[in-house]
Write a structure and sequence with these properties.
7 helices, mainly alpha, 199 residues
């Protein structure tokens, strides 16, 4: 039985049609993209100008998320118990989530420091593995770049351990810079879409 294979021109026409429809939809809703861009720029500026408040706000958002997750885990455990299914681990997970939420809410600084120390541990481990790999390579090509990357990662991990709050501020600055770049890109796209809609 012969199989139906669409011709390339039909496939190209279909792709062009979908692409045109998506472009038109984006152009009609240029204002929504502009708002996203402006909000990104505002968030980025806040993160750059007030890094301490930003990182603490993120810790509180994390607290709200883990609280909701814990409550939902306990609700799921109750449903599982009604159906005579295993529920103990769900209750344990829910209680751990709620305890984590309480710690993050009442001591957000501890949450921030714990996150930075986790990042420091990751940097130290990955840097150590890169260094070990660099000295076990049989070829010289790229060995020193890998060793340099490993040393940089280890140095970064040590700096984060020595000054975790400074590390949190720097991470917030990076987040702010990213948000501004993304926001500007979205704003430029929005106004170009608006010009396309006018023409």
């Amino acid at each position: 039985m012969p199989s139906f294979q669409p011709s390339n021109s039909l496939l190209d026409d279909a792709i062009t049609s979908v692409s045109t429809a998506m472009s038109a939809a984006l152009a009609r809703n240029w204002w929504a993209i502009a708002i996203r861009g402006i909000l990104g720029i505002v968030f980025g500026l806040i993160a750059l100008l007030y890094p301490g408040a930003t990182i603490l706000s993120l810790a509180l958002i994390f607290s709200a998320y883990t609280l909701a997750d814990g409550v939902l885990a306990i609700v799921a455990a109750a449903y599982a118990a009604q159906r005579h299914e295993r529920w103990a681990l769900l209750v344990f997970e829910g209680l751990v989530d709620i305890a984590t939420a309480a710690i993050a809410f009442f001591w957000p600084e501890i949450t921030v420091v714990a996150f930075v120390l986790l990042l420091a541990t990751w940097a130290l481990l990955s840097g150590g593995f890169m260094l070990a790999a660099a000295f076990r390579l049989d070829v010289d090509h790229g060995r020193w770049w890998l060793a340099f990357s490993g040393l940089a990662s280890v140095a970064y991990g040590i700096l984060l351990i020595v000054a975790p709050l400074t590390g949190a501020v720097v991470l917030t600055w990076w987040l702010g810079a990213y948000a501004i770049v993304l926001g500007v890109s979205l704003a430029v796209l929005a106004f170009r879409l608006r010009e396309q809609l006018k023409s």
